[in-house]
Amino acid sequence: MATTGPEIAQERRIVTEIPGPKSRALQERRLKAVAQGVGSSLPVYVERAGGGIVEDVDGNALIDFGAGIAVTNVGNANPLVVARAQEQLAKFTHTCFMVNPYEAYVDVCEALNRITPGDHEKRSILLNSGAEAVENAVKIARNATGRQAVVVFDHAYHGRTNLTMALTAKNMPYKQGFGPFAGEVYRMPMAYPFRWPTGAEECGPQAAAQAIEQITKQIGAENVAAVLIEPIQGEGGFIEPGAGFLPALVEFCRENGIVFIADEVQTGFARTGDMFACDHEGIVPDLITTAKGIAGGLPLAAVTGRAELMDAVHGGGLGGTYGGNPAACAAALAALETIESEKLVERARAIGETMLSRLRALAERYDIIGDVRGRGAMIAIELVAGAGDKTPNTAALAEIVRYCHSQGLVLLTAGTYGNVIRMLPPLVIGDDLLNEGLDILAEAFARL
Ligand SMILES: *Cc1c(COP(=O)(O)O)cnc(C)c1O
């Protein structure tokens, strides 16, 4: 077995109904202890996980098409990640980098500066969550430009803190009742090929022209600190912007002194079949935010960007007590080493080819599959009423997800209209489990 291979059997095993009796008992305790605002897509309580398997407290082994929302790219409890984090934990657990620094923090920043798009001089800062990274990127862009306006897009998701709620598009459940929201945030149309009125071909250039026109007329380019976008939207439903959209925005930003921020919290670290989704169209962002896939499951996030922007902020202006925790840094270095040594970028591409070809074949048979999209191991299907009718089909979605869950396939949903099934398997999942998961999904359609 490879040193980074999973330690639990890579086989689906269903021994109780899902969720089983132990999970249901825990769920009862939970409802009396945990605030109900925190949901769980599948309340199956976890005992162990690794490779493409999540094992629950009842002894069921589920196929993992979620990776903890694109986090455990290198596999859950990846042995190298665990070993390095344990080694670090035994030495010291925390000093606060702002009090006494340590080498692992510097190592992670060097690694991020090396692997993120562009070969310009870069700096990084480490934080705890994706939302915190996005907040810091906006702070840096505003400070460096002396401007205030931030441009975001329809269907965007950037987090749940006050500023990132403002940056996020969807009201329910993320914003409802949580206002007032931060100001100077402007939302533009997104290049959403499947729903673009004049068709997918024209989507990229037309959407870019619209966005640029609105920015110019409604805000004034000289007032814009940053344009912030996910290069493939995550929660929004894996919307891959029409070709040419991102390059046109980058060009507009360059011409107008606007900081282009790529939020790669979900798309980063080999997930899309490139190290970063920006690499696909050769986009070089001024700032890039990362989190989820960075450290094999330990909480860590970062902003990486042009040295002159990052260093524009005065000393003490950035930081946080826990940002760049030493165990999380050790885990990140192990995860990055694994991505490179196990060639997970290539693996993500192969996963994508398998998924896309099988899902496109399904789409030929079932006209409620309106769109199959995504790149690498970040693939979604959008469910609609039928051929020629793009009305979101949330009823079919609920039925399909319910069936897949009952068969032990962990599947997530997404989308502004709540009609997208998203698949984010760990990149170390084997072909057998990948195909078995897709078989279950095919059965779900056949039974509808
Ligand atoms: C998940 C996500 C965030 C927020 O990250 P948290 O770690 O949950 O705060 C921000 N941006 C994108 C694109 C995300 O997918």
Automatic annotation (TrEMBL):
E.C. number: 2.6.1.19, 2.6.1.22
Gene3D superfamilies found in the cross-reference section: Aspartate Aminotransferase, domain 1 (3.90.1150.10), Type I PLP-dependent aspartate aminotransferase-like (Major domain) (3.40.640.10)
Coiled coil: none
Pfam families documented for this protein: Aminotran_3 (PF00202)
Signal peptide per UniProt: none
BP GO annotations: gamma-aminobutyric acid metabolic process
Top-level EC class as recorded in UniProt: transferase
Superkingdom of origin: Bacteria
Keyword terms, alphabetized: Aminotransferase, Pyridoxal phosphate, Transferase
Biological pathway: Amino-acid degradation; 4-aminobutanoate degradation
Cofactor: pyridoxal 5'-phosphate
PROSITE patterns reported for this sequence: AA_TRANSFER_CLASS_3
Catalyzed reactions: (S)-3-amino-2-methylpropanoate + 2-oxoglutarate = 2-methyl-3-oxopropanoate + L-glutamate; 4-aminobutanoate + 2-oxoglutarate = succinate semialdehyde + L-glutamate
GO molecular function: (S)-3-amino-2-methylpropionate transaminase activity; 4-aminobutyrate:2-oxoglutarate transaminase activity; 5-aminovalerate transaminase activity; identical protein binding; pyridoxal phosphate binding
Family: Belongs to the class-III pyridoxal-phosphate-dependent aminotransferase family.
Protein name: 4-aminobutyrate aminotransferase
Record organism: Marinactinospora thermotolerans DSM 45154
